[in-house]
Amino acid sequence: MLHALVAVLVGLAICQLANLVTTVFLHRALSHRALTLSPGITFAFRVVTWLSTGIRPRQWVAVHRKHHAFTDVEGDPHSPVILGYAKVQLGNVGLYRKAAKDEAVVARYARDLPADRWDRVLFDHALIGLGIGTALLWLILGWQWALLAGGVHMASYLGLSASVNAIGHTWGRRRYDNPARNNQWLAWLTAGEGLHNNHHAAPTFARLAHMAREIDPGWWLVRLLVGRGWASVRHEEAKLKVPSAA
User: Fold this and answer.
1) Any residues with CB less than 8 A from the CB of 49 and at least 6 apart, and which?
2) Whole-angstrom distance, CA of residue 132 vs CA of residue 96
3) What's the rounded Cα separation, in Å, for the pair 159 and 153?
4) Where does the pLDDT of residue 90 fall: very low under 50, low under 70, confident under 90, or very high at 90 and above?
5) Distance between CA atoms of residues 198 and 210, nearest Å
6) pLDDT of residue 241
């Protein structure tokens, strides 16, 4: 029983690590250039992304940028307004993969992120990265508990990622006049991504919390990186696309 509990906790911890890498590296740094990371930190994030998710950064960036270009209108890769909440919450992986495999989408929306030598050798091979990550868990926990931890991580990460798109465009508070919604409880679980209405209002602002009562856990990591001289933010204050609706 104790081993199972440890495995579950390890899986949830890996999920949160993957959430941090997703929001700080894939989302804020690469997709919106809201912050600039040092070369060493960038490479570290690439490795962690590869081992914990298998995501190809340029594909993630392309899909997300297309979402911003067609938010909740025809062309949005994963809009619950267009497709329905259940299809996005339960089928987000398939929707993402469909858009990510479209070479025209990647070429148009991620042309500033061409594949380099490291991508060709390592990071474009998702199964190898995930296999190495699983092998590391196997060495630490044993194969039975490694499979449990990996399963918990996969289910929670994919479910929470889907929720940012599904819940974040269906329920919650709209401080700004855009289709996205703020859910602080979801922000706690997704390293700040639940403050989705704020993000759509100011995509190039690295901090997703705009008010004192809002908490953005991903910003804590950004502040640490900035404080160590490993990152710099693009804007000190939010550059709003639209005024407040509240």
Assistant:
1) 18, 21, 22, 25, 26, 55, 57, 123
2) 23
3) 10
4) very high
5) 7
6) 72
Confidence of residue 244 (pLDDT cuts 50, 70, 90): low
Please state the three-class secondary structure of 175-221 as a single string: CECCCCCECHHHHHHCCCCCEHHHHHHCCCCCCCCCCCCCCCHHHHH
Distance of alpha carbon 16 from alpha carbon 239, whole angstroms: 28
Count of alpha carbons within 13 angstroms of residue 42, beta-carbon side: 14
* Residue 101 per-residue DSSP state: T
**What element of type H or E holds 1?**
none
Ordered by start, the domain boundaries in the chain are: 2-233
pLDDT computed for residue 246 by the predictor: 47
Q: At 232, is the secondary structure helix, strand, or coil?
A: strand
The 3 state secondary structure assigned to 46-101 is HHHHHHHCCCCHHHHHHHHHHHHHCCCCCCCCCCHHHHCHHHHHHHHHHHHHHHHC
Identify the band that residue 243 occupies on the pLDDT scale cut at 50, 70 and 90.
Answer: low
Structure tokens at 186: 């979801």
Task: Please state, as a whole number, how many other Cβ atoms lie within 10 Å of the Cβ of residue 97.
Answer: 12
- 114-126 burial string, b = 16+ CB within 10 Å, else e? eeeeebeeebbee
Q: How far is residue 61's CA from residue 39's CA, in Å, rounded to a whole number?
A: 18
Q: Using CA atoms, how far apart are residues 136 and 133, in angstroms rounded to an integer?
A: 5
The mean per-residue pLDDT over the stretch 119-126 comes to: 95
